[in-house]
Amino acid sequence: MWLHAPFDPPLIDQINRMQAGVIPSPIHPLTCPNAKDGRHAFAGGYLGVLVAQRQGLVCPSCGYTQAWLSGTTLACAERESSAAMGNQSQRMEKARERALDDFSRLVRDGYVAAQPMVDSLEAAGERRAPRTDVASPAANTAALPQPLAA
Asked: Which residue has the higher pLDDT, 134 or 57?
């Protein structure tokens, strides 16, 4: 099964998180076929990582566009992601932060095609933010030790 552009926003978000390594995936990120020409930026741990956008997977460095994606690639990432859902991994959060820094730098340097990746990574961080509406114990209370069983 092949997925063809135009991609919808939830799919763009999912692909970008997979590409950045924010969701576990046994698959190497999809990269630009021109990545070894010396003009491509290093971001997300690889040279020439493609960024999902409405029109397809776009290289922020040279504009190469791949208008298709294997459904198997996405299915593998979904399986790995659902297996790790209950375990908030610090490694995945660090990967998100590193990729966000890399792709934000690309946007600042004028590679505006990297903006959808920045948006996806920022949204992923907001979803993982700690809840503030949970009642917490008062700051001046101390937990007393439980008595030992006789």
From this structure: 57
